[in-house]
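Record format v2
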Amino acid sequence: MSRTIIISNRLPVQLKINNGNLSAEPSVGGLATGLKSVHREGNGLWIGWTGLTEEDTPKAMEGEIDQALAELNCAKVVLNAEEIDGFYFGFSNRTVWPLFHYFLEYSEFELDFWEAYKRVNQKFADAILEVATDDDIIWVHDYQLMLVPQMVKEKRPNATIGFFLHIPFPSFEIFRTMPWREEVLDGLLGADLLGFHTYDYERHFLSSVRRLKGLEVSFNEIYLENRVIKVDSFPMGIDYKKFHNAAKDSATLSGKDRTDLQIKLDEHKKAAPNTKLIISIDRLDYSKGIAARIKAFEYFLIKNPEYKEKVRLIILAVPSRSNVPQYQLLKKEIDELIGRINGELSTVNWTPIWYFYRSLPFENLIDLYTKCDIAWLTPLRDGMNLVAKEFVACRTDQSGVLILSEMAGSAYEMNEALLINPNNFEEQAAALKEAINMPLEEQKNRNKLLQQRLERYNVEFWANEFMTALKDQQNDENVYVSQKVNDTILNEFSNAYKAANKRLLFLDYDGTLAGFHKDPQKASPDEELYELLDQLHNQENTELFLISGRDKETFTKWFLPKKYNMIVEHGVWISRNGEPFKLLEQVKGEWMEKIRPVLESFVDRTPGSFIEEKNYSLAWHYRNTDPDFGEKRATQLNTVLTSLIGNDDISVLNGNKVMEVKSSNVNKGRASVRMYGEADYDFVFAIGDDWTDEFMFQELPDSAITVKVGPKKTHAKYHVEGTKKVREVLKRFI
Ligand code: ADP
Ligand code: G6P
């Protein structure tokens, strides 16, 4: 039976050994807390690091450790102190973490860190390879393991591998500064599906792939030589029920049954009923903007002295990565800031900031989420931020206000929160004021909407969406798999060709017989091509058709004197034996007047793009635009056109850097099948490079030899790499 194997640096538990006794604590951090619920439900396995070093683990306790982990369906990867230094504290947290969170100045590019990262990633990959079968689904998590997908794929080409990045993927301008940027991309490209929290991270990644690897990217797919990789955004949710129910349960506790923290918070509320409690919970990390938040709080109190003694900020900072110098400095900075502000602003009855530097048990986390009035979360950059979602889930009476940084991934889904720019103190002070004074009714309205969304898009939903996309991706590939043309296949082609009595050939032009050119008019045939086509055209019992989306005027100029058979504009016009073009299909063209202005507006806004006007279709070319920008515009145009068209008479074809609007009843498939029906052909061959050719590949009979120029994902039976190879194939027919 197939299993899901989760692999991440952190396991859901952290093991500790005290005086020879083994104990386990839940891990903190979004990845572990979120995935825990997903893992609990399934029959899977979770592979990761226990938090112990090899040196700290007595050999005699190995069995006990394995047993404890096995009970949680977990297995360990053992790391020694040196590996943890270079891989975890080094490359992961002194190179990647700061860089991906836009703290370029903190990022250290040390060769030793990189070497350790590679070694340890290989260790994780080996741990997977040891236990996984081809039926299993392998789900690799986060920035510590970016090389693992490729390391596994290399040894197990048939493995199904998903990868999810829990932190931001930075813009190309940032990512390109990393010396090992291509190796990192290669590592990630071993996956079949890559997931990010937001569309922005996804497009940053695709942009780096396009620019650094020069790979073809179409919408959210990356075309490799032998596979297609899908990239998508899946905003991670929380275990909504767990938090909501825990909050409900905690509300029922009374008297002595309450936790110590609850008692303390209740006492505070009783003593100062009009005071608002503001909570902020994060790992102690510079990306969380804790120091700036404290300064913003000071700014708020100085600017609005009437709130002194009326608000209190509770800061819970969970110790994290304390061997990394930046984290030590931050700890010091925060200690000093809080000390100074409390020293300067406290009164006999009031301390503005309560500060906890520790990891609290789950029940206390719930106490804070439920007893405080406002959650104030101001990361300077955060992949998602689950704390924001947990706070809202715990507001069982729908009271409470969330102030959230717009730099957190979760801000995309939490529009009803008060969204702020963490660098803007003025705005933060205004948001605090608004939160303190927000009428209960408004709080409820906002939280109601947020809760509805969080309840639906919970962590289970997130994992299911990812898994379904991963499985689809595999199935999709099976449908579309084509064989690469090699020498044996070439021989088969030419034997079949020679043995045939009546042959029919369909050859696409752009991207197949000739390469692309910035100006389509300049992509005219060269002498070698004319010679090749002449020879094919002159063969006995052979009907050769050039089949193209081009306009008939260009093909008349280039090929009519040669008397080749031609089908142009995707099947609107036909010419045989040097006769002028005739209509092959009756098509309507009234829609063009309505669509032309839309395309013109896109030309105006997209430098380098232009419209090609054909008799019965309009094409928007964007080959000469900035690649990223062009793709973005193409996606927008597709959306606009699909919503405008809304009927079956017109359709949009997404070609290779061209988007064409044309009548639906015309396509190369329909045209080629018509030609096929005219005689008794026993050898049919079609070759082409883009989506418009897929119609031929799909509609021609099964016996046809269909060849895609470019990636493997196609309805054609075979694929070749480029135009040079196309000519090699055709020469075998002469
Ligand atoms: P990050 O992943 O960067 O740490 P998130 O906000 O996404 O940030 O996730 C933090 C997770 O850690 C949350 O699920 C939260 O419940 C948990 N957590 C935060 N503080 C504590 C704490 N003091 N004790 C236990 N768990 C905590
Ligand atoms: C973030 C990362 C996780 C990491 C967590 C805690 O959520 O995305 O991969 O586990 O922080 O950090 P730590 O370094 O303690 O694992």
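Residues 86 and 112 are 7 Å apart (CA to CA).
The first helix runs from residue 30 to 41.
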